[in-house]
Amino acid sequence: MKILLIEDNSELAENVVRYLDHEGILCETANSLFIAEDKLLSYSYDCVLLDLMLPDGDGLSLLELIKSRKSSPNVLIISAKGALDDKIKGLDQGADDYLPKPFHLSELLARLKAIYRRSKLDGSDEIQIKEISINLTTSEAFVNGNYLDLTKKEFDLLIFLMTNKNRVLGKEAIAQHLWGDYTDNLANFDFVYQHMKNLRKKICGAGGKDYLKTVYGLGYKFDENTI
């Protein structure tokens, strides 16, 4: 899961990033509307954590931009503004949930997972395509019921591919999803090929079919129609 946290409180932002990173969730930050808009226009995210009170404007003004994207991320509003009108306005404009400050980080994680399950997995904690399955609760992958020994990046890559099955994903999109804006200064994304190669080898070695297809000149996709 890749998250954008839009929050101007640096201490809170650092705590959230540290906690989510420990839970295996990539979290980038923006401390203003200006920076948030730039990131939203440049990168894709699974979910946006949106503070309403930002130094250069009202966070609700970002909802229209977020929802205008072809593949818009989910939005969880996190704000100290407790007014019922703000909560209702945010939900009416397309936010998926509202979490008032202060909050426990464990509750934030639970809300994020619930949103992800509803939007990506029809409420389930498991992704299943043919003989390959992923348990998001235990962070385990299986082929024909047998445990698949994957690195953290390989596991995240498999989730990304399976939740976007039959859709071509470019190398840059894959790199940004797994490594975030750390990829900005890279000359190329050739390392994605190596991760794809290792993941394919492990799946096939465990008795699974090769669903990971290279679309030359474009990227990769998980092709569930593989015979």
SSE layout:
Blueprint: E1 2-6, H1 10-22, E2 26-30, H2 33-42, E3 47-50, E4 53-54, E5 57-58, H3 61-68, E6 74-79, H4 84-92, E7 97-100, H5 105-120, E8 126-129, E9 132-135, E10 140-143, E11 146-148, H6 152-162, H7 171-179, H8 191-205, E12 212-215, E13 219-222
Parallel strand pairs: 1-2, 1-3, 3-6, 6-7
Antiparallel strand pairs: 4-5, 8-9, 9-10, 10-11, 12-13
What would you say this structure looks like, in words?
With 227 residues, the protein is an alpha/beta fold. It has helices at residues 10-22, 33-42, 61-68, 84-92, 105-120, 152-162, 171-179, 191-205, and strands spanning 2-6, 26-30, 47-50, 53-54, 57-58, 74-79, 97-100, 126-129, 132-135, 140-143, 146-148, 212-215, 219-222. The chain folds into two domains: 2-120, Rossmann fold; 126-222, Arc Repressor Mutant, subunit A. It contains eight helices and 13 strands. The strands form four sheets. It has a five-stranded parallel sheet with strand order 2-1-3-6-7, with helices on both faces. Strands 8-9-10-11 form a four-stranded antiparallel sheet, covered by helices on one side. A two-stranded antiparallel ribbon has the order 4-5. A hairpin with a 2-residue loop joins strand 10 and strand 11. Helix 6 crosses helix 8. The mean pLDDT is 88.
Provide a short characterization of the protein structure.
40% of the residues lie in helices and 22% in strands. It is built from eight helices and 13 strands.
